[in-house]
């Protein structure tokens, strides 16, 4: 058992089938850079507190750099027998620098090491997700600025309700993705807490300087309890939850794009690059990208439930079950980043077809509420005004007319309070323009909010590239 770092107490070889079942190298090699970064910080600290010499620390960090270069050039031979990234790196380090390699693991366990690696990895990926969310928010607010007065029927129960604008609609998603950024940023703070030095579960008798390694690694604090340090995966759960909320927002947007590209709505057109055809129906232009975005939400939700279920009822401290934390996390990272990147391009490149949304507005009695408000302003209790307008709508439906197409005398028949100023009120543009209170869709509001977008984004996550 000489080639296993933990082989001392074993007399027989591990079964091949067990090695295959228990090893994580095939997926945790993704964290090689974080593993090496953490080991270098640990080695520097060991020297700073006098556990190893500066020369030994130099050999270890130099050797770790070589291992890093080997992995990045593709020449590194990963071994399943060595289970995971931690032991693969350490074994190669010892081959390169000799027995001093064995000193690296002083005052450390794979349990605090793996917790550290996952935190460092997730903090970096969270930064990339934040960059992408910011990019999406920028595209949405840019569209809002130019489409603040492009009319769109707003819906409730998927029935035409009241006029809004494309700009107002884009800004609704801006708000959602801005909150997603806020959540990710908040999670990042807790992720950047260092478990290093908790060792297996009970700390170590060595005079480790945990704050030093924490600071060296850019952490914002250190875990305060050694048992918790190696058992806590809350930060990963938070990331997975945040990812699910992002995908939920993306899928609602995607669903609307699927609807809006159908002939039944036809409010927008996706650029050809975002669609595919049918092998049998020559007329088809299918919205595959928004459909797939909608579909990918399922796996991301599954990843959250998977990790919650793995952690449920696990006794303290480390248990091998926890190795199952990585694949759901990696899958959510890949899926969320890929989905955000494509959503940005899809929103940027779509074209709106205002003639279609205007036609839909004509048919939907979308200013009926404005007529009721008009009557209420003239003194009729709103409930009665509602009744009056209901009757007018029903009359229009029978006649196949829009409210604004009724003659003034006919309108007066429904209520003597109605006068010729009603025709201004019945215009969709008036309805939109009147909704000026904070958060309403009046074009001037939308423009103001779109202009405020950059400073709100900067407050959460300044642009990095
Ligand atoms: N590959 C392991 C994991 O991913 C690393 C920690 C192993 N620790 C242990 N005591 N077996 O969780």
Can you tell me about this structure?
This protein has 465 residues and is mainly alpha-helical. The protein folds into three domains: 7-106, Fumarase C, Chain B, domain 1 (Orthogonal Bundle), CATH 1.10.275.10; 111-206 and 217-244 and 293-347, Fumarase/aspartase (Central domain) (Fumarase C, Chain A, domain 2), CATH 1.20.200; 360-460, Ribonucleotide Reductase Protein R1, domain 1, CATH 1.10.40.30. The chain is 62% helix and 5% strand. It has 19 helices and six strands. The protein has a two-stranded antiparallel ribbon. Strands 3-4 form a two-stranded parallel ribbon. The protein has a two-stranded antiparallel ribbon with strand order 5-6. Strand 1 and strand 2 form a beta hairpin. It is elongated, with a radius of gyration of 30 Å. The structure holds arginine. Arginine (ARG) binds next to helix 6.
What ligands does this structure carry?
A: arginine
Number of domains as seen in the coordinates: 3
Unreliable runs = none
Which structural category fits the helices and strands? mainly alpha
**Major sheet: arrangement of strands:** 1-2
CATH class of the largest domain: Mainly Alpha
Helix content: 55-70%
Fill in the CATH topology of the largest domain.
Fumarase C, Chain A, domain 2
Number of strands: 6
Assigned CATH superfamily of the largest domain: Fumarase/aspartase (Central domain)
Q: Main β-sheet, in a few words?
A: 2 strands, antiparallel
Spatial separation of the terminal alpha carbons? 49 Å
- Mean pLDDT equals 95
Sum up the overall morphology in one term: elongated
Order of helices and strands: HHHHHHEEHEHEHHEHHEHHHHHHH
The radius of gyration over CA amounts to 30 Å
Total count of helical runs of at least 4 residues: 19
- Sheet-strand content, in percent, reads under 5%
CATH architecture of the largest domain: Up-down Bundle
């Amino acid at each position: 058992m000489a080639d296993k770092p933990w082989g001392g107490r074993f007399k027989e070889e591990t079964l091949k089938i067990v090695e295959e079942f228990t090893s994580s190298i095939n997926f945790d090699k993704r964290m090689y850079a974080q593993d090496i970064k953490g080991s270098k910080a640990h080695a520097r600290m060991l020297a700073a507190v006098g556990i190893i010499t500066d020369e030994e620390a130099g050999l270890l960090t130099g050797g770790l750099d070589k291992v890093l270069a080997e992995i990045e050039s593709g020449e590194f031979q990963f071994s399943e027998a060595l289970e995971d990234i931690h032991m693969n790196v350490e074994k190669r380090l010892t081959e390169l620098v000799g027995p001093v390699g064995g000193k690296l693991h002083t005052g450390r366990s794979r349990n605090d090491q793996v917790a550290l690696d996952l935190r460092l990895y997730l903090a970096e990926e969270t930064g990339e997700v934040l960059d992408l969310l910011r990019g999406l928010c920028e595209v949405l607010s840019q569209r809002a600025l130019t489409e603040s007065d492009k009319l769109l029927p707003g819906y409730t129960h998927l029935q035409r309700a009241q006029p809004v604008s494309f700009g107002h609609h884009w800004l609704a998603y801006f708000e959602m993705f801005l909150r997603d950024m806020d959540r990710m940023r908040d999670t990042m703070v807790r992720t950047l807490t260092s478990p290093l030095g908790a060792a297996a579960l009970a700390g170590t008798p060595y005079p480790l300087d945990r704050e030093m390694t924490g600071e060296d690694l850019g952490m914002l604090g250190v875990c305060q309890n050694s048992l918790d340090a190696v058992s806590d995966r809350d930060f990963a759960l938070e990331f997975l939850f945040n990812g699910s909320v992002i995908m939920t927002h993306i899928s609602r947007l995607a669903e609307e794009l699927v609807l809006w590209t159908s002939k039944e709505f036809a409010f927008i057109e996706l650029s050809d690059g975002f669609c595919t055809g049918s092998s049998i129906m020559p007329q088809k232009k299918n919205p595959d990208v928004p459909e797939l975005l909608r579909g990918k939400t399922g796996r991301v939700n599954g990843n959250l439930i998977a990790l919650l279920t793995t952690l449920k009822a696990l006794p303290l401290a480390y248990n091998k079950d926890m190795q199952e934390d990585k694949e759901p996390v990696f899958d959510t990272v890949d899926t969320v980043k890929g989905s955000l990147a494509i959503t940005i391009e899809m929103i940027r490149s779509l074209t709106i077809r205002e003639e279609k949304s205007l036609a839909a507005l004509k048919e939907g009695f979308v200013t009926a509420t404005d007529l009721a408000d008009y009557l209420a302003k003239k003194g009729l209790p709103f409930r009665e005004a509602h009744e009056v307008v209901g009757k007018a709508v029903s009359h229009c439906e029978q006649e196949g007319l829009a409210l604004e197409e009724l003659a003034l005398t006919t309108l007066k028949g429904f209520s003597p309070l109605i006068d010729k100023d009603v025709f201004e009120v019945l215009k969709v543009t008036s309805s939109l323009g009147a909704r000026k209170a904070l958060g309403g869709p009046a074009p001037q509001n939308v423009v103001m909010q779109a202009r405020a977008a950059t400073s709100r984004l900067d407050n959460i996550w300044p642009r990095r590239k």
